[in-house]
Amino acid sequence: MKIDDLKHAKLKEWVQWAADLMTPNEVVICDGSKEEYDSSIKALVDAGLGIPLKKRPNSYLFRSDPSDVARAESRTFIAAKNKDEAGPTNNWIDPVELKKTMTDLYRGCMKGRIMYVIPFSMGPVGSDIAKIGVEITDSAYVVVNMHIMTRVGKKVLDVLGTDGFFVPCIHSIAKPLQPGESDGGKWPCEPDVNKKYISHFPDTYEIWSYGSGYGGNALLGKKCLALRIASVLARDEGWLAEHMLILKLTNPDGKVKYMAGALPSACGKTNLAMLVPTLPGWKVEVIGDDIAWMKFKNGQLYAINPEAGFFGVAPGTSEQSNYNAMQSIKENCIFSNCGLTDDGDIWWEQIGYPAPGKTVIDWKGNERPSPQTDKVPKEGEPIAHVNARFTAPAKQCPCIASEWEDPAGVPISAFLFGGRRASTIPLINQSKSWIHGVFMGSITGSEITAAALDLKAGSVRRDPFAMVPFCGYNMGDYFAHWIKLGKKAEAEGNGDKLPKIFFCNWFRKDADGHFMWPGFGENSRVLSWMFDRCDGKDNAVETAIGFLPKPDAITAPEGVKPEVMAELIKVDTAGWKEEISSIRDEHYAKFGDRLPKELYDELDKIEKALA
After folding, report:
1. Percent of the chain with pLDDT over 70
2. Active site residue 338
């Protein structure tokens, strides 16, 4: 298919403009076929960038440049019309200035390369909750990952028609090739971090990325469209685009509920999405592990997972921590920055077993003696980069729910927020109202470990709704959007259909620094309590901070003593008084007059009740 074959006039004009600006050798419109995927993989292997894995059918390992291993948050911009619209949690550059800078960088940047045009659907093709994007890129690595993570090809162009809405996404690795030049087996990118740009233009719904080939910076359907631009579309159109897992929970009687959960990084989000329950008769299945798009239909909130794959963090994933994820990555996967074993398999720290054989090749390509343990080394560099990744088709997950691609979405009964807190925050807490629930989401945070040199260990890094790196506009307005949707539902007589809102904390510690709750599959005990609360079961007690489980409402797991359970579900009055002070003076203050008054009202209510 050529540019002239495109039926959508605006798309055709935009693609031609990009080709004229970036001067590639060739333009390829992606069709989403297996042949296209296979030929792109072959090109990457032939170029010395992809390593076939003998132990995993149709799976490949890539090693990126050390400068290109994670989301470049300091180089991620929300170029709203003014700084106030972007808000205090985003990096802002004037959009006119930024487009001029980047247009100059894009000029001739694809010389000697193929320009791929990737039409993709976020969500099942044709769903009324889905959106279409088109990514222009010069990276075959992006093409194969987008094949796994989104729905790509002609069927998307068919739905787009001659005048449908799409989000234009431009990406370049910023490495033009001279005649006869090749990448020489080295990951192509702009190694100078200050020349990388991951830019979002919320007023025109555009994404421009330059200089990075890493997933979150280059797979523009992922965080860039699915959250930063989608959050703006959701605000403008009256729906929700959230950094949330979606799970299907079935009780022993066969009754089903769907829940969505937002947890900041390192709080067990993917593990929760793919949980293996320890409670007899309960079943957890996954709809999505990372992003939820939700729209109201007849007063009920319905959610889809806009992605088609998992882009997961590898280190720490094992059969014990996430059995279902390990089953999902046995074949047809792309791995980045993992170790490579003697027998042609991937390996990472905390995978559950030592690296086999005498040597292992680390993520930088250096041969090292095989570690005799899978623990993270106390000194020296790990074998796998801490942000090593796997890209896996969601359909391979053994606990994928049958409804995961239902274009209508699934009805959401509950929202679950959570953070990593050693004290103060109870194991589980239910909000008293929708506004109180928005308050809970707005104060989400995790305690800083000693590894973060810029902040005092034990202080709380707030990550409201787990959306701080991903909200495409001022977060004060984002809180107001949540409040507005709840008020609208209540005004229309649908308040009883709104999802119940909960807050969890699997990470409480005792005086000796030991975790009080075992987590993992035992979290099903908390989910079962939430399930019953959604049905109005009288198994909670009202407190100053919300509804907490009655004693014995959650059966203690083996090894958790009654006095520990009691501690996990009680109100820490002194701790909460400190929490209120921190929220008021440090957290809420930074949003100025954009913070909704209703949230200060909630703070006042809790403070008064605690007194």
Report:
1. 98
2. no
Residue 29 has pLDDT above 70, yes or no: yes
Instruction: For domain 3-30+68-237, give the fold.
Output: Phosphoenolpyruvate Carboxykinase; domain 1 (3.40.449)
> Could you give phi then psi for residue 240, rounded to 5 degrees?
-130, 130
Q: Which of 169, 267, 338, 399 is catalytic?
A: 267
- What is the band of 456 on the pLDDT scale with cuts at 50, 70, 90? low
Tell me the pTM. Answer: 0.96
User: Is there a contact between 309 and 270 (Cβ–Cβ < 8 Å)?
Assistant: no
The CA radius of gyration of the chain, in Å to the nearest whole number, is: 24
Provide the b/e sequence for 110-141 (b: ≥16 CB within 10 Å). bbbbbbbbbbbbbbbbebebbbbbbbbbbbbb
CATH assignment, 242-305+404-610: 3.90.228.20
Q: Encoding tokens for residue 153?
A: 């090809």
Quote the CA–CA distance of 321 and 311 in Å, as a whole number.
Answer: 17
Give pLDDT tens digits for 526-566: 999 999 999 999 999 999 999 999 999 999 999 999 999 99
pLDDT at 450 over 50: no
Contact assessment for residue 265 and residue 279, using Cβ atoms and an 8 Å cutoff: no
Assigned token pair, 317: 């994933």
Half-sphere exposure of 566 (CA within 13 A, CB side): 3
Burial 430-448 (b: 16+ CB within 10 A, else e): bbbebbbbbbbbbbbbbbb
**What's the burial of 9, exposed, middle or buried (CB within 10 Å: 0-12/13-18/19+)?**
exposed
CATH architecture of the region 310-396: Beta Complex (2.170)
Q: How many residues does the chain have?
A: 611
In the chain, where the domains are located? 3-30+68-237, 242-305+404-610, 310-396
Supply the pLDDT for residue 4.
94
The CA angle 495-529-536, to the nearest 5 degrees, is 35
Give a three-class secondary structure readout of 495-527: HHHCCEEEEECCCCECCCCCECCCCHHHHHHHH
